[in-house]
Structure formats: C-alpha cells, structure tokens
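Task card 7
Instruction: Convert sequence to structure tokens.
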Amino acid sequence: MLTKEQKEEYIKSGYAKCPFCKSDQIEGGAIDVDGPEAWQKVTCIDCEKVWNDVYKLVDVEEID
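Output:
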C-alpha cells in the first residue's frame, strides 16, 4: 500500500517514476473517464507494481 509520503513524492516528481521502486520504466494504459474524474492504470516494468493515476478537471479552455 502506498504511504502518504510516497503519493506526495510521486505527484511532486511529475509522475515520471514508480512510487514504489523509483524506476522510470513505467507504462500507462488507457484513460477512463467518469464525470469530472478520470483514472489511468499504470504499471512499473521493473518491480511489476500496478496503480491508478487519478485525475480531476481543473480548468477549461475555449478552442478557436
């Protein structure tokens, strides 16, 4: 189970490294959306841990 500190470090690092083993060998799957929330299954190739990145809508921009 991820600790609060591991989660904070992962988010601060820009989601580029596994929150468990710190490997940069991670792969993200398709993004699923349900209302204002979205999530993506992410897998570490090195340690084989799997987790969800969870996203929330924070802004909207008009497209010309």
